[in-house]
Amino acid sequence: MDTTGTDPIEEKDTARTEAFSDAIFAFAITLLVLDLYVPKAGSPLTQALVNEWPSFFALFTSFLTVLIMWVNHHNMFHYIRRIDTRFMFLNGLLLLGVVLTPFTTSLVAEHVLLADAGLAAAIYSGTFLLLGLVWNVLWRYSSTGHRLLGANVTDEHVRTITRQYYVAPISYLSAFVVSFVSGLLSVCVVLVVAGFYAVTATMAT
Amino acid sequence: MDTTGTDPIEEKDTARTEAFSDAIFAFAITLLVLDLYVPKAGSPLTQALVNEWPSFFALFTSFLTVLIMWVNHHNMFHYIRRIDTRFMFLNGLLLLGVVLTPFTTSLVAEHVLLADAGLAAAIYSGTFLLLGLVWNVLWRYSSTGHRLLGANVTDEHVRTITRQYYVAPISYLSAFVVSFVSGLLSVCVVLVVAGFYAVTATMAT
Amino acid sequence: MDTTGTDPIEEKDTARTEAFSDAIFAFAITLLVLDLYVPKAGSPLTQALVNEWPSFFALFTSFLTVLIMWVNHHNMFHYIRRIDTRFMFLNGLLLLGVVLTPFTTSLVAEHVLLADAGLAAAIYSGTFLLLGLVWNVLWRYSSTGHRLLGANVTDEHVRTITRQYYVAPISYLSAFVVSFVSGLLSVCVVLVVAGFYAVTATMAT
Amino acid sequence: MDTTGTDPIEEKDTARTEAFSDAIFAFAITLLVLDLYVPKAGSPLTQALVNEWPSFFALFTSFLTVLIMWVNHHNMFHYIRRIDTRFMFLNGLLLLGVVLTPFTTSLVAEHVLLADAGLAAAIYSGTFLLLGLVWNVLWRYSSTGHRLLGANVTDEHVRTITRQYYVAPISYLSAFVVSFVSGLLSVCVVLVVAGFYAVTATMAT
After folding, report:
1. Which of B127, C11, C193, D53 could link C171 by a cystine bridge, Cβ 3.0 to 4.6 Å?
2. Which H or E run includes B2?
3. Would the CA dihedral through B66, B70, B76, B82 be positive or negative?
């Protein structure tokens, strides 16, 4: 509070950016449920729900992926202690990708069993690939010369995070490439990547 | 703030996890309103709204149930003072169940008077049953060896909470079993459980 | 933080309840926009939008009413410094009314020019009437014997607030009664009440 | 906390107003995704998505515009340290404009290639124009006589902000005027304005 006193323009705390990002992550992840379709009366319910499996499959994959992004966003702010306008716009680009997730999820759910499954999966994994790249740009911008980092963050910390953040774009590039072979397989890659991350992150605790 | 200084990776505060969870609880509980259907012009309004009673009934049941979950989530963080990555993923699994609530509510509202009411109610109560089980896993993980608890939480506190948390899975298991007899009765069990909890919690204050 | 240390069960801070309520107010107020309908290609746009005036009218009325509720909820927490489980459930009942607003708004927008306008307006104003009554119960519960109030709140403060909170149920009772004469007039009463409140609150500042 | 103690009516902190506004900004920006339409099976997916470009174009324009508004709202609260009821209502008027954005975006996306594109774009840019004007009223109200500003905010700060806030209404007035020539061009002006702002704000950092 006092620190913003000297020059209110220059110094900005991270709290509201975190809250705004949290809200967008939370809404996007909750909006995924709108992709689920309640079968109307008349058709056998069991069969209708079983036929809807791509929607459940895509919802679960996207939920886990966005949850992991949120966990990482949360963790990144243990290092970042200041933000500036550039950071807010790069973070905004990240949030654009998050906001698009309910759409790409719905797209892949509706088309993963059709002839154009590859294109749908390419858009799905491609959006995550772009997200992974923006994430790396955001981190590079924040960490170069310790620009926005806390005083107690060491170079070793920075190198560890930088290495970890390479994983996402490489993984989603794989999923993107696989989409040209099989749309369904591409979504499976996204799910396996998320599952692998969740398990290793959990083991490392 | 200073405490995160020594090692930014290890120590994580609970504030953002609470805020993220709050947003998802709040959003899911608000999305329930989308299940309500505004009767179109032409049909008699009174009759149309009366015919819609399963939607109002399911909305109220889910609203109260999710509200109670939020109250419990809120209360749980009076004991939990630290979080780790495993906690975030278990909590994420909990939130997946919360996110699914508008779907399962809509499902049960549309089918509770049809021949497949039992299946719809089984999915509805089954999701709450899984939520109750995940909740117990989350609490066991947090409380074992006081892993994530505040220093002032006593063993007696832990035992009391542990006992309280058994109630949810047992109650929802009953509702789940009842769904094989009658879908409508199963939803009534969920409502009675929530109402009973609300009354006793209120009395105990 | 230290205060919750002595007995984590008994003492609860208000921050998360305020945040949860804020989120529900914010979502419900934003969901109102889903009632607006984008005219499809083919029909003349001007005419189509003009014909949609009941939706804009109802949206504006509900937006202002919910905004005022939020302002009052915000102000109430300048007095309330503690919460208990009963408060959380009464507050939850309040939030149920807020969550229903997008539905009642849509209902009144679609039916205000039809033969059943009175019923739609009765449901619309009746929900606000119930909200106003719950609000008074909540305040009575919180203020009786200074149960949940801050130490510095005087009896004079309490009496002033108590008097102010009578206005809402009386106003909405008027709107409810008027709905049996004219649905449109009833919605106008709700709008006038909100406008009158906004102007006087603003003047008093 | 202590400061609100002397007179709970007079003094109000800004935290909850910021949180409430954040939630509405975040929710409105996320609801933009509902304007995107998942092509149904049967039609060629590539063609269907290409034909949907106005929706992507409008979504991106609105996302960037609302993001910039949020950044400015965030920055404004580095100066504003107190709020009163008038501020809350003016801020509410601002939020009404934000809430309408998913509707105006959808309107312009559906009509920008049709004969009535001009009207749709006039409503789209006109809403932003009104938002820009309310913003200036809000700032004037807050800054006149340093009414709601922090003690350390200088007259020079105020003049700088006041000048900056003129840009929005002038820009959106241009977009509004252009809408009478070409609807598509008007949306392009809104996008260019946002892009220009983002680039200059980023350069100035």
Report:
1. C193
2. none
3. positive
Which residues, including other chains, have CB under 8 Å from residue C26's CB and lie 6 or more apart? D20, D23, D24, D27
Mean pLDDT (chain B) is: 89
Q: How many CB atoms lie within 10 A of CB C145?
A: 6
pLDDT of D164 > 90? The answer is: no
Residue D149's beta-bridge partner residues?
Answer: D80
Q: Which helix (H) or strand (E) holds C23?
A: helix C15-31
Q: Which two tokens stand for residue B131?
A: 């939520």
Q: Quick check: C38 and D107 CB within 8 A?
A: yes
What is the mean pLDDT of the segment spanning C50-78?
93
The chain D residue lying nearest A17, using CA atoms, is D74
DSSP C53-78: HHHHHHHHHHHHHHHHHHHHHHHHTT
Q: Is the pLDDT of residue D9 over 80?
A: no
Question: What chains are in contact with A, requiring at least 3 Cβ pairs below 8 Å?
Answer: B, D
Handedness of CA C10, C13, C16, C22 (dihedral sign): positive
Q: How far apart are CA B4 and CA A79, in angstroms?
A: 9
Q: Do A26 and B28 touch (CB under 8 A)?
A: no
Q: Which of C177, C142, C180 is nearest to C158 (CA)?
A: C142
Degrees to nearest 5, angle at CA B156 with B154 and B158: 75
Structure tokens at C135: 């609000």
Measured between CB atoms, which of C40, C153, C198 is closest to D8?
C153
Q: How far is CA D42 from CA A202, D39, D47, in A?
A: 43, 9, 11
Q: How far is CA C81 from CA A52, B68, C142, C152, in A?
A: 48, 22, 10, 10
Structure-token match 């949360």, residue found: A74
Query: ipTM of this predicted complex?
Result: 0.88
Q: Which residues of B56-85 are buried (b: 16+ CB within 10 A; e: fewer)?
A: bbbbebbbbbbbbbbbbbbbbbbbbbbbbb
Give chains near D: 3+ CB pairs under 8 A: A, C
DSSP string of B46-87, one letter each residue: HHHHHHTHHHHHHHHHHHHHHHHHHHHHHHHTTTB----HHH
The total number of residues written for chain A in this structure = 205
Provide the b/e sequence for A6-33 (b: ≥16 CB within 10 Å).
eebeeebeeebbbbbbbbbbbbbbbbbb
Secondary structure of B4-47 in HEC code, one letter for each residue: HHHCCCCCCCCHHHHHHHHHHHHHHHHHHHHHCCCCCCCCCHHH
**Quick check: B4 and A75 CB within 8 A?**
no
Distance CA B204, CA C10 (A): 11
Chain C interface disruption, residue of B1, B16, B22, B158, most C CBs within 10 A: B22
Local confidence band at C74 (pLDDT 50, 70, 90 cut-offs): confident
Mean pLDDT of chain C: 89
